[in-house]
Amino acid sequence: MAKEAFTEEEKKTITNAIKAAELNTSGEIQVHLENHCKEDVLDHAAHIFKTLKMHKTKLRNGVLFYMAIKDHKFAILGDAGINSKVPENFWDDIKEHMLAHFKKDNITAGLSEGIKMAGDQLATHFPYKRDDENELPDEISFGKN
């Protein structure tokens, strides 16, 4: 199971990265991990995005970090609100940065840094306001496969 791919400490590091990234933004970041992805990774990430109801955020500023651990696939998917604000190659730049860590077998650092990079852009375009509410959970979600 993908849940066993990370130690409790690594899961906490990733969750803390999400919480830290969301401190300065109304944006929402989620991480979803599975073992396998049998279809196109972006198509499957879009399905997970919808399943997690990430498209229901008020400002459409959710970002999903999806990983299929055993199949070595991952995708970053931003909702319409954030996608309309960031440069065209923004998500690819984060993916390349993360991939450099993954190649060194440092998945936790790669994910955490990718989350921070996304959070920085979210904070720029969707700054935190006093009445902001945390619309989505910060904990990692896990698939059944």
UniProtKB/TrEMBL annotation:
Transmembrane segments: none annotated. Residues 4-120 form the TPM domain. InterPro entries: TPM_dom. It holds the Pfam family TPM_phosphatase. It comes from the Bacteria. This is TLP18.3, Psb32 and MOLO-1 founding protein of phosphatase.
